[in-house]
Specification:
Two copies of one chain form a homodimer. With 568 residues, chain A is an alpha/beta fold. In chain A, the strands form seven sheets. The first copy, chain A, has an eight-stranded mixed beta sheet with strand order 21-20-23-22-25-24-26-27, with helices on both faces. The first copy, chain A, has a seven-stranded mixed beta sheet with strand order 3-2-7-16-17-18-19, covered by helices on one side. In chain A, helix 4 runs parallel beside helix 6, helix 8 packs across helix 9 and helix 11 packs across helix 12. The first copy, chain A, is globular.
Chain lengths: 568, 568
């Protein structure tokens, strides 16, 4: 069960012998196991729902016909992708009804290793939100990148058995698992009786069989109903993803409509702060799912009890007696924005805003700061070595709304869109710098740089000249990490991300505003034409996605799985 | 996940790079998560299903259109009630498709305590069947009975944490839990992250709320659809029971038909060997459920993945890659008798019979024998003290097809049906004997005795005179426990149950035959008129069910929860 032990007072409240802490009356309650709305009151004691129906209570709240559901659960999210520290994250998503998240701190682990994961686990403790923190399984993500840390099977086992991690985070190295790589199988075995999350885009047939036989249990990469259906038929849990970039719920809805909600839940995976503030979080998934034809109760079941069930969060996902009092009250169900949110029986949000004092500040530990160190001043030539006009070079080709890059060949000086690109190792002062070219950004002047650079999170930088690139990188080192746009030797806009170079220590609204300004400046002042240039920038180093990538080790042809020369 | 680690060879089979051990082709496979029948082959390696679709294989079995389902799981059974030792039990139920059982060894624990539970856990290890053994929570069942052992919270915790018990067995003392009894709450807390099974007949409203708030998660005592519906709405798992005496599936079917299969499974609870051999086991539950209108796939889902899910048997309940190859092949689905049964990839039964050599003999450990010792010869007067005609006495009134007894007042010598009843302590040679009267058996001569006497399992005996009763009890002591019918100082029929006085060490067919002879003799030679006189006999000492019971401590008015005099 793993539910908290009940107090004798709470039992007395359940029996009706003592007054409840809180009685929520006048609502209709979603019964998740029987798929019904039932008119009843909910009695709460010690943060637990202890009874249905009328009770004496110290506080009575009449919700006037509201729909009452369990708190929403995100089945898989990289909290670092929101660029928010955990208190700001909680403050951003509790008002839209998220009371629990399964977190894979893969990004922080690439910078700070197990120590970073443990810092995150400590930080979430005081928050009024349940964090099921997984042990990242693929750090570093590829042999081409100089990450800040490595996690092997022993580290993963320690995170699970000693620190209480919820399971093994998404096993991105699916080719290794399928091929029977001993280290990957050892990492899966480290889960013991916990869960093993997967990541298997377009893996099907015998390859999928092997991935499943190895013990992987879930996937959030399905992009078509057919792909999701094969996975569910074969027993895999499918998390329907609606991130900032990858938006799959509409495409996957038919598998739920036709085959029900078993082995299905929602996840955000990667959501930018602007998306969180504008569109919401799991409530946005529910809204889109219902628009796509999934019955309302089914969508709510997926957003609550199914996700809780998968992650073994036995005290969450239901409004039944014995469950934690994570309760959402909806005046209407079209936006799925709750009017009120209780977490463990405490009102934490009302009318879309956090209740004063509901979220304690969680000062980030010292070790999270100061992770961006290049170790020496960089010259323009280090970043943008001169190449004669007429040289044919391999350029990373980016396209709007796609994280796949193209392996393009461009002639320098031909007038085709081209800019310099550099990736500078920033974790261990190795001095490693990879240089090359990118096309498709439309950059006409200045430079952009970011310490968010999946998955090793080195400094990635593009520019029309080495001088501004050097200024941009120096500025990021100065502010401890973040994203910056530079023109003529001066930063025009920046977003400081001093926590592991990935996250801000400021509230969500500030972060979202700074991010919007950065995008605007990149487009209007520097001429960038690709959509979301900083998101594109943060992915050009990710050497596990086709076709051409740049790491601190050099230019990588991902399909050939080897380094290649910049010059053709 | 807690699934066994995959071998590199099994992974190679999954990929299609090496031949499978077994390929089952030509069937339609039940996909439990998507509720479909799918035509595909199943490839097996190392006892695991590793792939769907064609593979090379060392052995190919064409099932010619058969329906393939996961092995059946009994969500709650007292294996002692079958009167069979575990090898004979497996031999009886594997041919009808049961490949896993959640066992609450409550009866053996009443006789031998934790040592008996551990002996059972050791005994099941070599069997081709999964036993999830729970730690009995209510031993002894009541303060009125002298049981052979006691289990407190510390014992239960040790059984779970040290010996790997699957959880806390049915918490029968629901009044104690609801009232907040500290020892009962400690026993529930001993579950840690494991399950807590419940037992809450007709408990509803605030009392049910309290029972659930205390952490109890399942129930198998619901007898009406309304009772089951309230329990499922409140998040409780409901096991639809079809035992030998209590048969509830038909009454409960509407809750499944209307609200689906979430939080629902099947259980046998208590099944006699004759019922097992005649009607079957979980397959019988499925057959009755389908007859009662539950859709075929829903009934199969409840019998497989739902029960596995509840009990955390993550490698069971599905035919997907990565799951144990517990596979049933059905030529037809009306009787739900499988034509073939594979367990962990081995063919264990075919055409309703065990495959030669599939089940190893499991010799019962020495400690299971010799548990019936009265300690002194008993005289007729010890068991049937003389009472003058005309005396008005309280008599335990039994009725066919009910385990509730009536608190009857009968005048001795009035011609009304009446016999002597005695319960003799047999565990610790305390010399305690409770005596009284029973009515409704219709016994006209001789005596019946049994060491199966819920829940303390002392010797319970009825007779028309003390002499035959003394012979019956002496005979049971002589054969180490069992059931016997005596007339004129000689046993006419008997069933030896030398294992804890509860189970035979013989095959199911022999046990069932002996039991049938006993019933016949009781009816034809001794005049018994009540249905199943030995089952009635074995329940007249159960001092937790209304209304009047006899224990080794004396006559108990269960409703008043105290001893009462035999004479009014």
């Amino acid at each position: 069960m793993a539910r908290p032990a009940v107090s004798t007072r709470a039992l007395a409240v359940a029996r009706g012998d003592e007054p409840a802490d809180l009685l929520i009356r006048g609502g209709r309650v979603l019964a998740v196991a029987t798929h019904e709305w039932l008119p009843t009151s909910l009695a709460v004691a010690d943060g637990m729902i202890v009874g249905w129906g009328e009770r004496e209570a110290r506080e009575v709240v009449d919700v006037d016909g509201a729909a009452l559901t369990p708190g929403f659960v995100d089945a898989h999210v990289h909290v670092e992708s929101t660029k928010l520290w955990v208190d700001a994250f909680a403050a951003a998503v509790l008002p839209v009804g998220t009371t629990a998240v399964a977190v894979d701190p893969h990004e922080i682990a690439n910078v700070l290793g197990a120590a970073g994961v443990r810092a995150l686990m400590r930080a979430v403790q005081p928050l009024p939100m349940t964090f099921a923190v997984y042990a990242p399984s693929c750090v570093p993500a590829s042999p081409f990148e100089g990450a800040g840390a490595e996690l092997d099977a022993t580290d993963i086992r320690a995170l699970i058995e000693v620190d209480g991690a919820a399971g093994v985070g998404e096993v991105m190295n699916f080719p290794g698992v399928i091929a029977g790589d001993a280290e990957m199988l050892a990492r899966i075995a480290a889960a013991g009786s916990r869960r093993v999350d997967g990541h298997s885009p377009e893996v099907s047939g015998p390859s999928l069989d092997a991935y499943l036989a190895a013990g992987v249990e879930s996937d959030h990469e399905a992009t078509s109903a057919a792909e999701a259906l094969e996975k569910r038929r074969k027993g895999m849990w499918v998390f329907l993803r609606e991130g900032s970039a990858s938006r799959n719920i509409r495409a996957l809805a038919p598998t739920i409509i036709e085959h029900g909600t078993d082995h299905a839940a929602f996840c955000a995976d990667d959501r930018e702060p602007t998306t969180l503030l504008t569109d919401g979080h799991v409530n946005d998934c529910v809204r889109i799912a219902v628009e796509a034809g999934i019955p309302e109760i089914d969508a709510l079941v997926m957003a609550t009890t199914r996700a809780a069930e998968y992650h073994g969060l036995w005290s969450l996902g239901s409004l039944a007696p014995g469950y934690q009092a994570d309760i959402l009250a909806f005046d209407e169900l079209s936006s799925f924005k709750p009017a009120r949110v209780w977490q463990a029986g405490q009102l934490v949000a009302s009318g879309g805003a956090i209740v004063d004092g509901a979220i304690p500040a969680v000062p980030p530990e010292h070790l999270l700061y100061g992770t961006v160190t290049v170790g020496r001043p960089l010259a323009a030539d280090d970043l943008a070595p001169a190449v004669p006009d007429g040289t044919r070079v391999r350029a990373i080709g980016v396209e709007s709304r796609s994280l796949t890059t193209r392996n393009r060949v461009v002639t320098v000086g031909s007038g085709e869109d081209l800019c310099f690109a550099a990736v500078v190792e920033r974790h261990r002062q190795t001095g490693r710098i990879g240089t090359g070219f990118a096309t498709g950004f439309g950059l006409r002047r200045g430079a952009l740089a970011s310490t968010v650079a999946h998955d090793a999170h080195n400094i990635v930088c593009i520019g029309t000249g080495g001088a501004d690139m050097a200024v941009a990188i120096a500025r990021l080192e100065e502010i401890g990490g973040g994203q910056v746009a530079v023109l003529d030797g001066r930063p025009l806009a920046e977003l400081a991300l001093p926590l592991a170079g990935l996250m801000s220590d400021r509230p969500a609204a500030e972060v979202a505003a700074a991010q919007s300004v950065l995008s605007l400046v990149a487009e209007r002042e520097l001429g960038a034409t690709v959509a979301e240039p900083f998101m594109q920038l943060s992915f050009i180093a990710l050497s596990v996605i086709p076709e051409l990538r740049l790491t601190d080790g050099g230019l990588v042809d991902v399909d050939a799985f080897r380094y290649v020369d910049v010059r053709v």
